[in-house]
């Protein structure tokens, strides 16, 4: 009877040890994945900041005025060219 109990305890200990090894391995893999994803998140946040700065630069009123005048040939109308339409 004691040999059977001892064998059961040994088998349970081995199965438990294998379970612990598997859990530790899975934890390491998930931690590496988490670190990789955090790094990607940080890079995306930096890129988003750059894009916001670029958008702000392109949307400046001086820049829009310059493009309208130089590339599109637009100009402010003279006083005589302005017509006010009222309902």
From TrEMBL:
Source organism, top-level taxon: Bacteria
Pfam family name, one: FtsL
Main location as per UniProt: membrane
GO biological process: FtsZ-dependent cytokinesis
Membrane topology: Single-pass type II membrane protein
One of the record's GO cellular component terms: cell division site
Coiled coil segments of this chain: 27-54
Cellular localization per UniProt: Cell inner membrane; Cell membrane
InterPro entries xrefs: Cell_div_FtsL
Keywords, ordered alphabetically: Cell cycle, Cell division, Cell inner membrane, Cell membrane, Coiled coil, Membrane, Transmembrane, Transmembrane helix
Role, per record: Essential cell division protein. May link together the upstream cell division proteins, which are predominantly cytoplasmic, with the downstream cell division proteins, which are predominantly periplasmic.
Family recorded in the similarity comment: Belongs to the FtsL family.
Subunit note: Part of a complex composed of FtsB, FtsL and FtsQ.
Protein name according to UniProt: Cell division protein FtsL
Organism annotation: Luteimonas marina
């Amino acid at each position: 009877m004691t040999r059977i109990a001892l064998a059961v305890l040994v088998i349970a200990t081995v199965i438990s040890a294998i379970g612990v090894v598997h859990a530790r391995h899975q934890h390491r893999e998930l931690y590496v994945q988490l670190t990789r994803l955090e790094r990607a998140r940080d890079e995306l946040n930096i890129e988003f900041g750059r894009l916001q700065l670029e958008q702000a630069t392109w949307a400046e009123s001086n820049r829009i005025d310059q493009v309208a005048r130089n590339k599109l040939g637009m100009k402010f109308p003279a006083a005589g060219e302005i017509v006010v339409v009222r309902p």
